[in-house]
Design brief:
The protein is of the alpha+beta class. Helices cover 43% and strands 15% of the residues. The chain contains 5 helices and 5 strands, in the order ααββαββααβ. Helix 1 runs antiparallel to helix 3. The chain is globular.
């Protein structure tokens, strides 16, 4: 299977990261991943079709916000907090604080029926 490409921190651009964070579903995914854990795609629950969720995860990955790891037929995703903090100090903290305050992406969560990772 083809491995996903993840931009190096120096390749991340502010416009791509901000563009990736311009959608409430993607902000919700970042909020879920902000606990520092790696999540299987099946654990993520959002009010969109699976194909649309996959698209949102790809946008986040391509911008450098998340890292995706494939294990067999399963995919896992984690927030690239350290890389984002290195490249754009304080940005993620500000986005998460504002999102929490306004409940942006609050409809995204974890699927209670998903197997544990």
């Amino acid at each position: 299977m083809k491995q996903a490409r993840h931009p190096e921190p120096g390749e991340m651009t502010l416009m791509e990261v901000m563009g990736a964070l311009s959608d409430p579903i993607r902000v919700g995914l970042v909020r879920v991943l902000a606990d520092g854990g790696e999540r299987g795609w099946g654990e993520l629950c959002a009010p969109v079709a699976k194909s649309t969720l996959s698209h949102h995860l790809r946008v986040l990955r391509d911008a450098g916000v998340t890292r995706t790891r494939q294990e067999g037929t399963r995919c896992f995703v984690e927030l690239r907090r350290d890389d984002l903090e290195t490249r754009f100090p304080g940005l993620l903290t500000a986005v998460l604080g504002a999102a929490d305050g306004d409940d942006v992406g609050g409809q995204v969560g974890l699927n209670a029926d998903a197997p544990p990772t």
